[in-house]
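Explain this fold:

***
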Amino acid sequence: MPNFEVDFYETANGRQPAKDFLMSLDQKMRTKMLRMILMLKTNGNELREPYSKFVSDGIYELRAKVGSDISRILYFFIVGQHIILTNGFVKKTQKIPVNEFKRAKKYRADYLKRWRTK
């Protein structure tokens, strides 16, 4: 199975929310999340729990845990073997925060709108 291409979503003003989140993590968690991104690149849509989970509306979560700290990066697939990482957060409750899920859907809609007009 060929590798998937994994990219960070970029806002119109050049920000990359998922990359910014990744860089804000402590070294151990960042290393673990980078390993998860590599697994996602290698396995794509075959990556399953406990590493990845479908959330809803085409949005998935990439999961990392170090001790009791839990981090997530949300992502989606586009045509071909392409994955876009949208945003991340430190998980403090059982459910994904609604605002983070809405943000991922907004970023996906923006990405697809700009992607189609290229």
